[in-house]
Amino acid sequence: MTNLILCGGAGTRLWPLSRNSRPKQFYPLFDGKSLFEETVLRNQPLVDQFFVASNEAQMTLARQIVGQCQLGSVKELVEPVGRNTAPAIALACLSLPPDEVVFVTPSDHRITKSAPYQKAVRRAQTLAEAGHLVTFGITPSYPETGFGYIEADGETVTAFREKPDLATAKTYVESGRFYWNSGMFVFRAGVFLEELARYRPDVLEACRAVKGLNPTWEQMNAIPSVSIDYAVMEKSERVRVVAFDPGWSDLGSFDALYDEVQPEKDVRRLGNGVTVNVGSKNNLVLVDGRTVALVGVEDLLIVDTPDALLIVKRGQSQEVKTVVEELKTLKPEQLK
Protein backbone atom coordinates (compact mmCIF):
# COMPACT_ATOMS: atom_id res chain seq x y z
CA MET A 1 0.00 0.00 0.00
CA THR A 2 1.22 3.49 -0.92
CA ASN A 3 0.53 6.52 1.27
CA LEU A 4 -0.11 9.52 -0.97
CA ILE A 5 0.36 12.62 1.21
CA LEU A 6 -1.26 15.75 -0.19
CA CYS A 7 0.44 19.02 0.76
CA GLY A 8 -1.79 21.78 -0.48
CA GLY A 9 -2.79 25.25 0.56
CA ALA A 10 -1.22 27.75 2.91
CA GLY A 11 -3.42 27.30 5.99
CA THR A 12 -4.50 30.93 5.89
CA ARG A 13 -6.86 30.52 8.87
CA LEU A 14 -3.74 29.94 10.99
CA TRP A 15 -1.98 33.15 9.91
CA PRO A 16 0.46 34.54 11.10
CA LEU A 17 1.78 31.13 12.19
CA SER A 18 1.07 29.59 8.79
CA ARG A 19 2.52 31.28 5.68
CA ASN A 20 2.81 30.39 2.00
CA SER A 21 6.47 29.45 2.45
CA ARG A 22 5.85 27.48 5.64
CA PRO A 23 2.24 26.36 6.05
CA LYS A 24 0.91 24.84 9.24
CA GLN A 25 1.81 21.25 8.36
CA PHE A 26 5.52 22.09 8.60
CA TYR A 27 5.44 24.01 11.88
CA PRO A 28 6.55 21.94 14.92
CA LEU A 29 3.40 22.31 16.98
CA PHE A 30 3.41 19.25 19.26
CA ASP A 31 6.44 17.70 20.98
CA GLY A 32 8.76 19.29 18.44
CA LYS A 33 7.09 17.46 15.54
CA SER A 34 5.25 18.98 12.61
CA LEU A 35 1.90 17.65 11.40
CA PHE A 36 3.63 16.39 8.25
CA GLU A 37 6.10 14.42 10.35
CA GLU A 38 3.29 13.05 12.51
CA THR A 39 1.53 11.92 9.33
CA VAL A 40 4.62 10.05 8.15
CA LEU A 41 5.30 8.40 11.51
CA ARG A 42 1.64 7.45 11.96
CA ASN A 43 1.43 5.74 8.58
CA GLN A 44 4.89 4.21 8.42
CA PRO A 45 3.81 0.91 10.05
CA LEU A 46 0.83 0.63 7.68
CA VAL A 47 2.29 1.23 4.23
CA ASP A 48 5.09 0.02 1.97
CA GLN A 49 6.03 3.34 0.41
CA PHE A 50 5.29 7.07 0.50
CA PHE A 51 4.31 9.44 -2.28
CA VAL A 52 4.26 13.21 -1.69
CA ALA A 53 2.34 15.68 -3.86
CA SER A 54 3.04 19.38 -3.37
CA ASN A 55 4.41 22.52 -4.95
CA GLU A 56 8.17 23.04 -5.16
CA ALA A 57 8.45 25.21 -2.03
CA GLN A 58 6.62 22.72 0.17
CA MET A 59 8.43 19.79 -1.42
CA THR A 60 11.71 21.25 -0.17
CA LEU A 61 10.33 21.23 3.39
CA ALA A 62 8.88 17.74 2.93
CA ARG A 63 12.23 16.38 1.72
CA GLN A 64 13.91 17.60 4.89
CA ILE A 65 11.43 15.70 7.07
CA VAL A 66 11.56 12.61 4.84
CA GLY A 67 15.33 12.60 5.29
CA GLN A 68 15.04 12.92 9.07
CA CYS A 69 12.61 9.97 9.14
CA GLN A 70 14.99 7.88 7.01
CA LEU A 71 12.27 6.72 4.66
CA GLY A 72 14.57 6.01 1.75
CA SER A 73 13.12 6.48 -1.73
CA VAL A 74 9.91 8.52 -1.82
CA LYS A 75 7.94 9.23 -5.00
CA GLU A 76 7.22 12.90 -5.67
CA LEU A 77 4.67 14.84 -7.70
CA VAL A 78 5.78 18.48 -8.00
CA GLU A 79 2.85 20.68 -9.00
CA PRO A 80 3.71 24.05 -10.58
CA VAL A 81 0.13 25.16 -9.95
CA GLY A 82 -2.51 23.61 -7.71
CA ARG A 83 -5.56 22.07 -9.40
CA ASN A 84 -7.26 20.60 -6.30
CA THR A 85 -7.23 17.00 -5.12
CA ALA A 86 -8.68 14.95 -8.01
CA PRO A 87 -5.90 15.84 -10.51
CA ALA A 88 -3.14 15.32 -7.94
CA ILE A 89 -4.51 11.89 -7.06
CA ALA A 90 -5.03 10.99 -10.71
CA LEU A 91 -1.45 11.92 -11.66
CA ALA A 92 -0.14 9.81 -8.79
CA CYS A 93 -2.34 6.84 -9.69
CA LEU A 94 -1.24 7.00 -13.33
CA SER A 95 2.35 6.44 -12.17
CA LEU A 96 1.46 3.38 -10.04
CA PRO A 97 0.47 -0.20 -10.96
CA PRO A 98 -3.34 -0.48 -11.37
CA ASP A 99 -3.56 -3.00 -8.50
CA GLU A 100 -1.63 -0.80 -6.05
CA VAL A 101 -3.72 0.21 -3.04
CA VAL A 102 -3.42 3.96 -2.50
CA PHE A 103 -4.03 5.52 0.92
CA VAL A 104 -4.65 9.24 0.40
CA THR A 105 -4.13 11.50 3.42
CA PRO A 106 -3.82 15.23 4.01
CA SER A 107 -0.54 16.37 5.53
CA ASP A 108 -2.04 18.72 8.11
CA HIS A 109 -4.45 16.68 10.25
CA ARG A 110 -3.88 15.47 13.79
CA ILE A 111 -4.82 12.02 15.09
CA THR A 112 -4.20 11.02 18.70
CA LYS A 113 -5.68 7.50 18.96
CA SER A 114 -3.46 5.07 17.09
CA ALA A 115 -5.31 1.79 17.76
CA PRO A 116 -8.69 2.72 16.21
CA TYR A 117 -6.83 4.50 13.42
CA GLN A 118 -4.82 1.44 12.44
CA LYS A 119 -7.88 -0.80 12.68
CA ALA A 120 -9.86 1.52 10.40
CA VAL A 121 -7.07 1.74 7.82
CA ARG A 122 -6.76 -2.05 7.68
CA ARG A 123 -10.52 -2.39 7.19
CA ALA A 124 -10.42 0.22 4.44
CA GLN A 125 -7.56 -1.64 2.77
CA THR A 126 -9.65 -4.83 2.73
CA LEU A 127 -12.59 -3.00 1.14
CA ALA A 128 -10.30 -1.35 -1.40
CA GLU A 129 -8.81 -4.70 -2.40
CA ALA A 130 -12.38 -5.83 -3.10
CA GLY A 131 -12.81 -3.00 -5.61
CA HIS A 132 -14.37 -0.24 -3.51
CA LEU A 133 -13.53 3.43 -3.16
CA VAL A 134 -13.28 3.96 0.59
CA THR A 135 -13.64 7.17 2.53
CA PHE A 136 -13.28 7.67 6.29
CA GLY A 137 -16.05 9.14 8.42
CA ILE A 138 -15.18 10.70 11.75
CA THR A 139 -17.73 10.08 14.50
CA PRO A 140 -18.89 13.63 15.33
CA SER A 141 -18.46 14.81 18.91
CA TYR A 142 -20.49 18.01 18.45
CA PRO A 143 -22.56 19.73 15.71
CA GLU A 144 -19.74 21.27 13.66
CA THR A 145 -20.80 23.64 10.85
CA GLY A 146 -17.37 23.90 9.24
CA PHE A 147 -17.15 20.31 7.93
CA GLY A 148 -18.90 18.40 5.22
CA TYR A 149 -20.81 15.30 6.35
CA ILE A 150 -21.19 11.73 5.08
CA GLU A 151 -24.54 10.01 5.53
CA ALA A 152 -24.27 6.24 5.75
CA ASP A 153 -26.15 3.02 6.35
CA GLY A 154 -23.49 0.79 7.84
CA GLU A 155 -20.53 0.96 5.43
CA THR A 156 -22.71 2.05 2.51
CA VAL A 157 -22.64 5.77 1.76
CA THR A 158 -26.09 7.16 1.06
CA ALA A 159 -25.16 10.84 0.59
CA PHE A 160 -22.49 13.48 0.93
CA ARG A 161 -23.70 16.68 2.55
CA GLU A 162 -22.30 20.19 2.30
CA LYS A 163 -21.35 22.20 5.39
CA PRO A 164 -24.66 22.60 7.29
CA ASP A 165 -26.09 25.38 9.41
CA LEU A 166 -26.14 24.77 13.16
CA ALA A 167 -29.72 23.47 13.32
CA THR A 168 -29.05 20.98 10.54
CA ALA A 169 -25.75 19.91 12.10
CA LYS A 170 -27.58 19.16 15.35
CA THR A 171 -30.02 16.87 13.55
CA TYR A 172 -27.11 15.13 11.84
CA VAL A 173 -25.35 14.38 15.12
CA GLU A 174 -28.54 13.27 16.87
CA SER A 175 -29.43 10.82 14.08
CA GLY A 176 -26.25 8.76 14.47
CA ARG A 177 -26.10 8.27 10.68
CA PHE A 178 -23.80 11.15 9.82
CA TYR A 179 -20.03 11.48 10.03
CA TRP A 180 -17.54 14.26 9.46
CA ASN A 181 -15.84 13.97 6.08
CA SER A 182 -12.18 13.42 6.92
CA GLY A 183 -10.63 13.89 3.47
CA MET A 184 -8.86 10.50 3.67
CA PHE A 185 -9.40 7.76 1.09
CA VAL A 186 -8.27 4.24 0.15
CA PHE A 187 -8.66 2.55 -3.24
CA ARG A 188 -6.79 0.66 -5.93
CA ALA A 189 -5.14 3.06 -8.37
CA GLY A 190 -6.86 1.42 -11.34
CA VAL A 191 -10.29 1.54 -9.72
CA PHE A 192 -10.01 5.26 -9.04
CA LEU A 193 -8.94 5.91 -12.64
CA GLU A 194 -11.86 3.81 -13.94
CA GLU A 195 -14.33 5.89 -11.95
CA LEU A 196 -12.64 9.14 -12.95
CA ALA A 197 -12.95 8.07 -16.60
CA ARG A 198 -16.64 7.38 -16.00
CA TYR A 199 -17.54 10.66 -14.31
CA ARG A 200 -14.85 13.18 -15.30
CA PRO A 201 -13.15 11.95 -18.47
CA ASP A 202 -11.97 15.50 -19.19
CA VAL A 203 -9.87 15.46 -16.03
CA LEU A 204 -8.37 12.06 -16.81
CA GLU A 205 -7.60 13.02 -20.42
CA ALA A 206 -5.79 16.18 -19.30
CA CYS A 207 -3.83 14.19 -16.70
CA ARG A 208 -2.82 11.58 -19.29
CA ALA A 209 -1.32 14.39 -21.36
CA VAL A 210 1.22 14.98 -18.60
CA LYS A 211 4.38 12.95 -19.01
CA GLY A 212 5.99 11.94 -15.73
CA LEU A 213 5.64 13.56 -12.33
CA ASN A 214 7.05 16.99 -13.16
CA PRO A 215 4.31 18.65 -15.22
CA THR A 216 4.94 22.02 -16.77
CA TRP A 217 2.84 25.00 -15.72
CA GLU A 218 0.98 24.82 -19.04
CA GLN A 219 0.22 21.10 -18.65
CA MET A 220 -0.97 21.47 -15.07
CA ASN A 221 -2.99 24.58 -15.76
CA ALA A 222 -4.82 22.77 -18.57
CA ILE A 223 -6.24 20.24 -16.09
CA PRO A 224 -9.69 21.18 -14.71
CA SER A 225 -9.55 22.08 -11.02
CA VAL A 226 -11.87 19.81 -9.03
CA SER A 227 -11.88 17.95 -5.72
CA ILE A 228 -12.01 14.18 -5.47
CA ASP A 229 -15.40 14.49 -3.73
CA TYR A 230 -17.02 16.42 -6.59
CA ALA A 231 -15.25 14.49 -9.34
CA VAL A 232 -15.78 10.93 -8.15
CA MET A 233 -16.83 10.17 -4.58
CA GLU A 234 -20.23 11.90 -4.69
CA LYS A 235 -21.11 10.13 -7.95
CA SER A 236 -19.65 6.63 -7.79
CA GLU A 237 -21.71 3.61 -6.74
CA ARG A 238 -18.56 1.85 -5.50
CA VAL A 239 -18.05 4.08 -2.44
CA ARG A 240 -17.91 2.70 1.09
CA VAL A 241 -17.21 4.43 4.39
CA VAL A 242 -15.27 3.30 7.44
CA ALA A 243 -16.48 5.25 10.47
CA PHE A 244 -14.32 5.64 13.56
CA ASP A 245 -13.13 7.99 16.29
CA PRO A 246 -9.35 8.46 16.06
CA GLY A 247 -9.05 11.65 18.09
CA TRP A 248 -9.10 13.61 14.84
CA SER A 249 -8.72 17.32 14.17
CA ASP A 250 -8.05 19.16 10.92
CA LEU A 251 -6.57 22.04 12.95
CA GLY A 252 -8.38 24.39 10.62
CA SER A 253 -8.46 27.32 13.02
CA PHE A 254 -6.90 28.59 16.23
CA ASP A 255 -10.06 27.51 18.05
CA ALA A 256 -9.34 23.95 16.89
CA LEU A 257 -5.72 24.35 17.99
CA TYR A 258 -6.88 25.55 21.42
CA ASP A 259 -8.77 22.27 21.89
CA GLU A 260 -5.60 20.27 21.17
CA VAL A 261 -3.36 22.02 23.73
CA GLN A 262 -3.43 20.88 27.35
CA PRO A 263 -4.00 23.67 29.92
CA GLU A 264 -1.29 24.70 32.37
CA LYS A 265 -2.46 26.82 35.30
CA ASP A 266 -5.37 28.46 33.45
CA VAL A 267 -3.44 29.06 30.22
CA ARG A 268 -2.70 26.96 27.16
CA ARG A 269 0.66 27.65 25.59
CA LEU A 270 2.81 26.62 22.66
CA GLY A 271 6.32 27.71 21.75
CA ASN A 272 9.32 28.55 23.89
CA GLY A 273 8.31 31.97 25.20
CA VAL A 274 7.46 32.89 28.79
CA THR A 275 3.83 33.48 29.79
CA VAL A 276 2.88 35.38 32.94
CA ASN A 277 -0.75 34.75 33.84
CA VAL A 278 -2.48 37.04 36.36
CA GLY A 279 -6.22 36.70 36.92
CA SER A 280 -6.68 35.35 33.41
CA LYS A 281 -8.14 32.11 32.09
CA ASN A 282 -9.05 30.13 28.98
CA ASN A 283 -6.42 31.77 26.77
CA LEU A 284 -4.12 30.25 24.16
CA VAL A 285 -0.67 31.81 23.80
CA LEU A 286 1.64 30.82 20.95
CA VAL A 287 4.94 32.67 21.18
CA ASP A 288 8.64 31.99 20.51
CA GLY A 289 11.34 33.78 22.47
CA ARG A 290 9.24 36.59 23.96
CA THR A 291 7.44 37.16 27.23
CA VAL A 292 3.67 37.58 27.16
CA ALA A 293 1.88 38.85 30.28
CA LEU A 294 -1.87 38.32 30.61
CA VAL A 295 -3.76 40.37 33.19
CA GLY A 296 -7.50 40.05 33.74
CA VAL A 297 -8.33 38.68 30.29
CA GLU A 298 -10.02 35.51 29.13
CA ASP A 299 -11.02 33.60 26.02
CA LEU A 300 -8.28 35.10 23.84
CA LEU A 301 -6.13 33.47 21.17
CA ILE A 302 -2.75 35.24 21.03
CA VAL A 303 -0.22 34.40 18.33
CA ASP A 304 3.08 36.28 18.28
CA THR A 305 5.58 35.98 15.42
CA PRO A 306 8.63 38.13 14.57
CA ASP A 307 6.67 40.34 12.16
CA ALA A 308 3.03 40.07 13.21
CA LEU A 309 0.79 39.78 16.28
CA LEU A 310 -2.69 38.26 16.16
CA ILE A 311 -5.20 38.66 18.99
CA VAL A 312 -8.61 37.13 18.42
CA LYS A 313 -11.56 36.24 20.62
CA ARG A 314 -12.19 32.53 21.03
CA GLY A 315 -15.05 31.47 18.81
CA GLN A 316 -14.15 33.99 16.10
CA SER A 317 -10.92 32.56 14.71
CA GLN A 318 -12.57 31.64 11.40
CA GLU A 319 -12.47 35.38 10.68
CA VAL A 320 -8.67 35.23 10.40
CA LYS A 321 -9.27 34.50 6.72
CA THR A 322 -10.75 38.01 6.45
CA VAL A 323 -7.53 39.42 7.89
CA VAL A 324 -5.59 37.54 5.23
CA GLU A 325 -7.78 39.00 2.49
CA GLU A 326 -7.09 42.51 3.82
CA LEU A 327 -3.35 41.85 3.94
CA LYS A 328 -3.28 40.83 0.28
CA THR A 329 -3.71 44.55 -0.43
CA LEU A 330 -2.25 46.21 2.68
CA LYS A 331 0.91 44.14 3.22
CA PRO A 332 1.17 41.09 0.94
CA GLU A 333 4.75 40.37 2.01
CA GLN A 334 3.39 39.16 5.38
CA LEU A 335 1.64 36.28 3.64
CA LYS A 336 4.78 34.89 2.00
Total number of strands:
17
Largest beta sheet, briefly? 9 strands, mixed
- Beta-strand fraction estimate: 25-35%
Low-confidence stretches: none
Rg computed from alpha carbons, rounded to a whole number of angstroms: 20 Å
Specify the number of helices.
11
Give the helix level as a range of percent. Answer: 25-40%
How widely separated are the two ends?
Answer: 35 Å
Order of helices and strands: EHEHEHEEHEEEHEHHHHEEHEEEEEEH
Overall form: globular
Question: Structural class of the secondary structure composition?
Answer: alpha/beta
What's the mean pLDDT score?
Answer: 93
Give a written overview of the molecule.
This protein has 336 residues and is of the alpha/beta class. Helix content is 32%, strand content 27%. It has 11 helices and 17 strands. Strands 1, 2, 3, 4, 6, 7, 8, 9 and 10 form a 9-stranded mixed beta sheet that branches. Strands 12-14-16-17 form a 4-stranded mixed beta sheet, with helices on one face. Strands 5-11 form a two-stranded antiparallel sheet. Strand 1 (2-6), helix 1 and strand 2 (49-54) form a beta-alpha-beta unit. The chain is globular. The model has no long low-confidence stretch (mean pLDDT 93).
How are the secondary structure elements laid out?
Layout lengths: L1 E5 L28 H9 L5 E6 L1 H13 L6 E4 L6 H10 L6 E6 L3 E2 L2 H16 L3 E6 L10 E5 L2 E6 L4 H10 L2 E11 H11 L1 H8 L8 H5 L6 H6 L5 E6 L3 E2 L4 H7 L6 E4 L3 E5 L4 E5 L3 E5 L4 E6 L2 E6 L6 H11 L6
Helix pairs in contact: 3-6, 3-7, 6-7
In summary, what is this structure?
With 336 residues, the protein is of the alpha/beta class.
